[in-house]
Each structure stands twice: as C-alpha cells, then as structure tokens.
Amino acid sequence: MTSPWLREKAISPIFSPRGVKSVAEGLNISSLLRGRTASSDQAQPLRQIVGDEKGQPLRTFAVVSGKGGVGKTNLAVNLSLAFCERGQRVVLLDADLGLANVDILFGLLPPAVTLAHVIEGERTLDEALLKLHEGFWLIPGGAGVQELADLEERRQGLLIEEFSRLDERADVLLIDTAAGLHASVLAFALAADSVILVTTPEPTAIRDAYGVLKVLARRSNGRIDVRLIVNMVRDEAEAQEVGRRFQMAAAQFLNVPVIFAGHVSRDDRVHDAVARQRPLLWAFPDSKAARNVRLVASRILPAPSSEEELVAAPSRGLKGFLFRLSRRVGLGG
Ligand SMILES: Nc1ncnc2c1ncn2[C@@H]1O[C@H](COP(=O)(O)OP(=O)(O)O)[C@@H](O)[C@H]1O
Ligand SMILES: [Mg+2]
C-alpha cells in the first residue's frame, strides 16, 4: 500500500527551481525541497517548523460552497499562501474526497502518503505533510478524509496525538472541502472555528450557498462563524450587492450573522495559473485576483497586533476541532 520511494516522485518537473517564483523574499527553492527529498529529512517537517512559543491556539477554517466550480480550491490554496505572507504557519488539508486537486494546482504528482495512511497508523503525520513553501504544508486527504469525518473511537487517541503536534507549531489549518452537503463536509464545517463560504454572483451558486448555510445554522443552533467570499465578480459593486443580500437573508431567516470577507474579481490570470499548475499568488502575484485574495486574507486573519480589535470566533485549537469532528457535533450521532 505504501511505497516510500513514491514520496520523492511526488514532485513533478513543473515544480522546478526555475519554475517557482516566490512572493516571499528570499525563498530558496532548493532548501524548500530539501526537507522533502532527502530521506533522512523525511521525518523532519514538523520539527522544522519554527518552534517559537505561540500564544494563540491553531485556528481552523473550512472552505465550503453549495455549488461546485465556484473557486474553493483556488481560494484555499491562495488564501493559504496569503496567510503565509502575513507570517502565519499554514497547513492546508485537501479534503475534497471526489475531486482532490490541490496537488494539481501545485504541479505535483498524486502524493504517495496521505491522511489515509496516518489514520491507518501506517505513517506518521510528519510523513504525510508536504512542505511546499516556507511556513506552508499540504496534507493530501485521500481516502482518509471520509475516515477522519467518521472516526472510530479506537483511532481517535492516535490521531489526536499526531495532530496535537501541529497544534503547537502551526497557526492555521485550512480545509478545502467538496461542494455541497456531504456528511463529511458538514462535519468539517461544524468542527472548524470558522467557515469560509464561497459563492459566485450567479443565482444558482448563491441559492446553493444559502442552502448549505441553512443546514449548518440548524445543526449548530446558529452558533457558527461564517465569512462570505464572493468570487468571480465583475466589479466590487456586484460583490457588495451579493454580500448585502446574503447577509440580510441569513440574518432574517436563519438568525446567523454572516461576515462579508470580500470578493475576488473574475480574472483570466486564475485560469492561466491553473494551466501552468502554479498557484496564482506565485504565478501572477500582482494580478487583480491575487491582490483581492490578499485583502480577503487580511480581513479573515488580521495581523496579530490588531486581532483583538476584530470580531473573531475564539479558536478551539486542533484538539477541539478533532473532538467535535469525532463526536460529529450537530450531525445527530
Ligand atoms: N476569480 C476567478 N476568475 C476566473 N476564474 C476563476 C476564478 N476563481 C476560480 N476560477 C476558475 O474556476 C474553476 C473552478 O475553480 P476551483 O477552485 O476548482 O473551484 P471548486 O474548488 O469550487 O470546484 C477553475 O477553472 C478556475 O480556474
Ligand atoms: Mg475544489
């Protein structure tokens, strides 16, 4: 089942030193890759994460939508990189069981070690973490996603122990989910500190996003922190209008306050970046969409110094997240 050699092969030629241009100053791609390719380093990633004391527990965000194709995966990837630019240490969990494709956006071959191996106890979480950038790791979910959302009691201890090391050393866990109302998506959304709800201005996408929010509101008794992003907008006015209507409907009919986190313009550069299999923030750091993403990131995760000024749900940390996930909070068993 597990083939250690595949790990090295997870980096495709596209992810080459020349091909990667970092938005962060001084990124050295060879040092970036070193942690993944040398076998002696394979158990290192977590230990390499800057080990300074951190006051805040890790924050968990689930990126969800009603309709597919609204830009969740692109947002999850680029928000992660934008959080990174803001000095956060970010772990992105690719939890879209059907269309797991974060790896494709980075030009990686299908990862050999996934969350499934960790859950089965075959590999450590360290081994499943792919370091893609300074302060940024990817956990390929694979078949483990379903299992994580459906944890048996006997696996809980093992997993909580594995994940608790993340809690100490990373700041943010972002979860890219499948579209719609699958049980695992609801479980992730209800367990996370905050939900990042993505829609486009299309009436179908808005209606489906509202449908998801309705279920989340009911299952959580309205205790849910929701940040709305309107993607692929023509202009800011269109986004404001969608945001305003959505907020009003959510407040009036669901009694849920939705925080409007902003918009990302429809921008051909997103498509171009996908075609190049490089994240937008790396491929086109100055594009309109990239600038939009950074602004959204600054609203969702303000600088530590201004944190207290902003409305934010208190982080329950990773243990709280896993506890809620394993208890299937709000899912009736
Ligand atoms: N802001 C944008 N402007 C233009 N195209 C976009 C934008 N965001 C996403 N896309 C395109 O939409 C498609 C779906 O994006 P993706 O992130 O895979 O959505 P999801 O994960 O919600 O299914 C991709 O082809 C992507 O290039
Ligand atoms: Mg997706």
UniProtKB/TrEMBL annotation:
<feature type="domain" description="CobQ/CobB/MinD/ParA nucleotide binding">
    <location>
        <begin position="62"/>
        <end position="280"/>
    </location>
</feature>
<dbReference type="GO" id="GO:0016887">
    <property type="term" value="F:ATP hydrolysis activity"/>
</dbReference>
<keyword id="KW-0547">Nucleotide-binding</keyword>
<dbReference type="Pfam" id="PF01656">
    <property type="entry name" value="CbiA"/>
</dbReference>
<keyword id="KW-0067">ATP-binding</keyword>
<dbReference type="InterPro" id="IPR002586">
    <property type="entry name" value="CobQ/CobB/MinD/ParA_Nub-bd_dom"/>
</dbReference>
<dbReference type="GO" id="GO:0009898">
    <property type="term" value="C:cytoplasmic side of plasma membrane"/>
</dbReference>
<dbReference type="GO" id="GO:0005829">
    <property type="term" value="C:cytosol"/>
</dbReference>
<dbReference type="InterPro" id="IPR033875">
    <property type="entry name" value="FlhG"/>
</dbReference>
<dbReference type="InterPro" id="IPR050625">
    <property type="entry name" value="ParA/MinD_ATPase"/>
</dbReference>
<protein>
    <submittedName>
        <fullName>MinD/ParA family protein</fullName>
    </submittedName>
</protein>
<dbReference type="GO" id="GO:0005524">
    <property type="term" value="F:ATP binding"/>
</dbReference>
<dbReference type="InterPro" id="IPR027417">
    <property type="entry name" value="P-loop_NTPase"/>
</dbReference>
<dbReference type="GO" id="GO:0051782">
    <property type="term" value="P:negative regulation of cell division"/>
</dbReference>
